[in-house]
Amino acid sequence: MSSGVVSASKHQDEYTEEEYRARLARLPSRIDIEIEIEAYSGHTVGMKRIRVGRRTTAVAVLAPGHTDGQMCVIVPVVHQGKPHKLVVWSGNDNIENAAQYAISADFVQGLAGQEGADAFINTHAYQGAVYSHLRTLKANPSAPNPLLMGRAGVQRHIEIFGNAHRALAQRLIDGTWQAM
């Protein structure tokens, strides 16, 4: 197994604002982290906790369906001084993988519930209102954050993804699916 972790010698709250902004300015625009997650025995899904620095733990989740090695993460975030757990999810444009995507959605839903996830973002922003939400937040950073759905909202959101893909998989089986 291999993993890459970016860590700092100081935690964010140990820097002055000027030091922290200077440190952020030096970060590359992209950081690739390689993580190998083994699927649970007899299953196609799995998870692994990864430490980032001294105080932060994220959950990397093997959730195939979008692609064979699809991953999502559950990461701690802070919004307006309050801690939250954010599910970073990827939508599915590959209808042939709908059944597996539904299985992965069920797994992620359960794990998100255990982790207390209360925020959700889809990396396929065009599949929801993410662009609109981000524009709203940029225009008014003190406005309520629409990505903060509460625990029940995150659970329902992932449940909808899973149910939609279960229905799509069934339509592929019974021949009632027609591409638009």
Structure description:
By secondary structure, this protein is an alpha+beta fold. Helices cover 35% and strands 19% of the residues. The chain is built from four helices and five strands. The chain has helices at 17-26, 98-115, 130-139, 150-174, and strands at 46-52, 56-62, 71-79, 82-89, 119-122. It has a five-stranded mixed sheet with strand order 1-2-3-4-5. The longest helix is centred in the C-terminal third of the chain and has 25 residues, at 150-174. It is globular and about 60 Å long. The N and C termini lie far apart (42 Å). The relative contact order is 0.12. Mean pLDDT is 81; it is low at 1-13.
Number of DSSP helices? 4
Helix content: 25-40%
The largest beta-sheet arranges its strands as: 1-2-3-4-5
Structural class: alpha+beta
Amount of beta strand: 15-25%
Report the end-to-end length measured between terminal Cα atoms.
42 Å
Query: How is the main sheet built?
Result: 5 strands, mixed
Mean pLDDT comes to: 81
Question: Gyration radius, to the nearest Å?
Answer: 18 Å
Strands, count: 5
Shape descriptor: globular
SSE order: HEEEEHEHH
Low-confidence segments, ≥5 residues, pLDDT <50? 1-13
